[in-house]
Structures are given as structure tokens and as C-alpha cells.
Amino acid sequence: MADYRRMYYTLCAGVSVLLDDMPADGVYQSVYQRLELLLQEAEDIYIETADVVWLEEHRPEEETKE
């Protein structure tokens, strides 16, 4: 079975380091912005699908409307 959690951490950590080393402007500005957006999307998916127990006061808004 593939270790998707480990793959996620490895990829996200690598992209994060790359973004830290890459200038946010100039010829690579569009690449930087796309990598940053993809990293944020991956983090959002991970948070939305992780097995977590929400404390009532910190529960996302859409879940408290039930």
C-alpha cells in the first residue's frame, strides 16, 4: 500500500523549500505563484479530509449549521 501521507509531506516540504529559495518575481513569477497555489490547494485538501476531531468552538462554519 502506498504511503500517501508520507508522499504528501515529502512533496509539500520540497515545494515549500523550493519556494523559499525561488524569487517571487521576475522570470519565474508565474511558476512561483502556481507552485504556491498548488501547495495551498494540497494543504486545504489534507485539512478537509484528515481524520480530526473538531472542538465545537473551532469547527468549520459549514459543519456547525447542521
Task: Tell me about this structure.
By secondary structure, the chain is an all-alpha fold. The chain is built from three helices and no strands. Helix 1 runs antiparallel to helix 2. The longest helix is centred in the middle third of the chain and has 21 residues. The termini are far apart. The model has no long low-confidence stretch (mean pLDDT 83).
Summed over residues and divided by their number, the pLDDT gives a mean of: 83
Q: Note the run of SSEs as H and E.
A: HHH
Give the DSSP E fraction (strand runs of 2 or more residues). under 5%
Percent of residues in helices comes to 55-70%
Q: What's the total count of β strands?
A: 0
* CA-atom Rg in angstroms: 16 Å
- Give the overall shape: flat
Low-confidence stretches: none
Number of alpha- plus pi-helical segments: 3
Short descriptors:
single chain, flat, 66 residues, 0% strand, mainly alpha
What's the quick description here?
The chain has 66 residues and is mostly helical.
What's the structural blueprint in terms of helices and strands?
Layout: H1 4-21, H2 29-49, H3 61-64
Helix pairs in contact: 1-2
